[in-house]
Amino acid sequence: MQKIPVTRDGKKGSDILIIHSDDVVKIESVKEKELVIHTANNKYYWAATLEAFEEWMYEEGFRLIDQMNVVNMNHVSEYDLKKGIVTLQPEHETQSKAASAAWIHKDHIINVMNMLDELKKLNKSTDPDEFQDDILESILAQEEDSRFARSYAMIQAIFEKKKAEKQLEQSEQRYKSLFRHNPDPICSFDRNGFCTSANPALFTMTGYTEEELLNKSIHHLIVPEQLERWHDFFADTLRGQTRHYEVTFLHKNQSYVELSILNVPIVVNGQFNGVYMIGKDISERKRAEQMLIRSEKLSIVGQLAAGVAHEIRNPLTSLKGFVQLMQTKVKGYDSYFEIMKDELERINFIVSEFLVISKPQSVRYEAKDALQILQNTVVLLSSQALIHKVKLLIEETQDNLSSINCDENQIKQVFINILNNSMDAMPNGGTIRMELLNHDHQHIMIRFMDEGCGIPEERIPRLGEPFYTTKEKGTGLGLMVTFKIIESHGGRMLIHSQVNKGTTVEIILPTALVHSNPLKC
After folding, report:
1. Which of 229, 312, 394, 458 is most solvent-facing, going by the fewest CB within 10 Å?
2. How remote is the C-alpha of 107 from its chain's centroid?
3. Where are the domains of the chain?
4. Which strands make up the sheet holding 271-281, listed edge to edge?
5. Coiled-coil region(s) at which residues (predicted)?
6. Mean pLDDT of the chain, nearest integer
């Protein structure tokens, strides 16, 4: 669309106004080098010749239809064949103007109107592929007059150009839609590894904003131990290879996001110009795989326990009885006998843990006060805590704490296992702090915080596996049973720890409102 400088009176020194060519309906030549520019509502003056418009007249739909008039055929609303007059009225205007078309062959005007009408339809269309230029080609092929043929050819060229632009625009919109609305994270990188574009899914998945990621390196998103591997795959893709691999991203809140990545080279003018990275969040799949592995280990331990536990207990009872008998008969070895009995008790305890895993327990779920269960557990372990020089403090509770649907003995066993672990982690004494809070409308949280030696971060994910323990004489079965009890109650247990600073265990359990009907199993 051209901008035309005009004046209102055509006099030298008058103020120059700017109007758009699309608003012009007719250009009238009144005398040499002086034109009247008509809009639907006004007329203006411009000092020029009709030839000065020739470069853009045809492109914008202007046609010479009278020796003194050039009209914008896009705005022809009516054509009176008998009078040889065209009515010019833009779509958004209520007023109109007329122009003589008497000396131009009527077929030419009708052809131009039909061809420009197709061009208008194309401009308004959302699907350029539905338009065929058969009408334009047919008109062009039948015209023998070179003056008219040039006009038709120009319209056809504009039509084809507009159609190509529309198709390109539609293709770009489809690509942008695929890119922007894809639920999987997608981003592009230049050859230096800077992120040049990214879709909203990446920002959601990582917790970062556009300003924090675009035109920057994403090294801080990748766990350090996998950064070199990521660079290797990136370099391979810049050499034209498509690479598929898995990598762990760090969310802004420092949580882990497991991703399956596909690297695709960006090719521009035959050169590898960058990399597209298409990701898929597989965190849930990874967690499911870990749960499956843990379940399989539980199954194996259960089968082992079922076959061995009872066989061990029978000779164990005999050994314990004979040790006690020998202690009454043999003098001077009491310390040795005490060690033997302690170790036999330890074996018996391990067998008991096996039995909990190996067979379904009779469980009765009832609405219980979690604070009351915790207080009873603290009283039960108070003497043991005193021996270990450990203080057990219930620091914070909420008055309106919801009750939980649980088997009281099993939850008490969970509390005992956690408190025992915390006391073992503080050989020189310390304080274990406990809190009971409403986690949300449907869950409560019981938090245990000790001042022990802590657990290395890389070992936390394996806690709860059978025979995996951080203790010198532990079996890992106590924590395994704890996880199993919490899971059977529909809850979850989270462990956070820092070496030489302590460990925090958070147990989240559903309230009695969630389980409105007591379960029996």
Report:
1. 458
2. 60
3. 47-173, 186-281, 286-358, 366-510
4. 195-198, 186-190, 271-281, 256-268, 243-250
5. 154-181
6. 81
Token representation of residue 19: 């109007």
| Long-range contact pairs involving 391-396 (C-beta distance under 8 Å, separation at least 24) | 391/430, 391/431, 391/432, 392/419, 392/432, 392/434, 393/431, 393/432, 393/433, 393/434, 394/434, 394/435, 394/436, 395/433, 395/434, 395/435, 396/435, 396/436, 396/437
At a CB cut-off of 8 Å and minimum separation 6, what does 447 contact?
434, 435, 436, 437, 504, 505, 506, 507
DSSP string, 207-231: ---HHHHTTSB-GGGB-HHHHHHHH
Q: Does domain 186-281 have CATH number 3.30.450.20?
A: yes
- One-letter amino acid for residue 411 of the chain: I
Helices (H), 83-133: 106-124
CATH of domain 366-510: 3.30.565.10
Q: What's the pLDDT score for residue 259? A: 92
Q: Which amino acid is at 348?
A: N
The label of the residue with tokens 């008058």 reads 14
Give yes or no on whether 186-281 and 286-358 have one common fold: no
Mean pLDDT of the region 301-312: 64
Spatial distance between the Cα atoms of 294 and 484, rounded to a whole number of angstroms: 11
Can you tell me which residue has the tokens 């064949």? 81
